[in-house]
Amino acid sequence: MTISNTSVPDSLEDHPILANAYSAYVSRKQVLLESGPRVAACGIYNAGKSSLLNTLAGQFGEGAEAFKTGAARVTSTVSELEVAGVTLVDMPGVDGATDDDETAWQGMLGGDCYLYVHRLMAAEFEQSELEFLGLLKEQVRGLESRLVLVISQIDEVGDPEEAARREAAIRTAFTAAVGFEPRWTFAVSAARYKKGHVEGKAGLINISGIPELKNWVSQLPETSANVDWRTFRADRLRTEKDALTAQILAIADELDLQIQVRTAARQKRLQSFEAAVAALVQNVSGSLKRIDSAE
Ligand SMILES: Nc1nc2c(ncn2[C@@H]2O[C@H](COP(=O)(O)OP(=O)(O)O)[C@@H](O)[C@H]2O)c(=O)[nH]1
Ligand SMILES: [Mg+2]
């Protein structure tokens, strides 16, 4: 079966379920080939994911937030927003209810790049974070070339030496969890960035660390030289193609079974018809014999 065009092959026209699955795959393929990168923010509840994404989206004003901040732990929606060719994806916390984790996980696997957000104040990684990072490492191919460590809410630690110590500890724990040193680390404060904008203080914006991260994100659609996310799109496409193939095979098996059942039923009907014909023949020939003998 060729999947180079959008029309459903003739052979599938009589099978609406297959035809739908095929069309869905073809449109997914187009989306994956043509759409810009998806950047997913992940981390535990209250790490500052939504606030961070708002600064990246440039929508952080009172009542104008692109992503809901300070959201209740139970929020399990995955929201996304496209900004200058990059789709920003906000994840529920990785430490929420099991359902949250499932949602977060599905969203994770659909990401091209990941911002792992961890608060500077939280020196230790929680067990749920370690488990999540372990799974990420296991499930996402080429993670090294598309995972960013974002140390957030740096305004909470005033002493620079203390901040540096904490940053180093976070990097060490993160490295141990994923098995490699993060290729990119940004230390940011969404609060400073926001305050800088509201009060017109360029100095605050500059020390917020957000402009550097914004810059990193904004160059993603341009080239794959720095961050190789395009290569892994092919992987995702293959996974989806495998799922379609499995679906088609399952449907084919089902059709096969139906044919067998119908054939068996028809054979049964045929047998009783044959028996009826045989009885009729016997009957008629019996009658003929009687007529013959009577003559
Ligand atoms: N001090 C400080 N607080 C922040 C910063 N970013 C977020 N917060 C606060 O931390 C809480 C959680 O933020 P949120 O973005 O909703 O975190 P999420 O649960 O990871 O999406 C909210 O009360 C935010 O106002 C920051 O840079 N500095
Ligand atoms: Mg949030």
Total helix count? 9
Quickly give the structural class.
alpha/beta
Order of helices and strands: HEHEEHEHEHEHHHH
Radius of gyration from the CA trace?
31 Å
- Total beta strands: 6
On the 0 to 100 scale, the average pLDDT is 86
Instruction: Spell out the CATH superfamily of the domain at 38-228.
Output: P-loop containing nucleotide triphosphate hydrolases
The second-level CATH architecture of the domain at 38-228 is 3-Layer(aba) Sandwich
Oligomer: single chain
Ends apart, CA distance between termini: 71 Å
Principal-axes shape call: elongated
Helix % is 40-55%
Strand content bin: 5-15%
What does this structure look like?
The chain is of the alpha/beta class and 295 residues long. It has a domain at 38-228: Rossmann fold. Helices cover 54% and strands 11% of the residues. The protein has helices at 16-34, 49-57, 98-109, 127-139, 160-178, 190-198, 202-206, 210-218, 231-294, and strands spanning 38-42, 79-83, 86-90, 113-119, 147-152, 184-187. The chain has a 6-stranded mixed sheet with strand order 2-3-1-4-5-6, with helices on both faces. Bound molecules: guanosine-5'-diphosphate and magnesium ion. Magnesium ion binds next to helix 2.
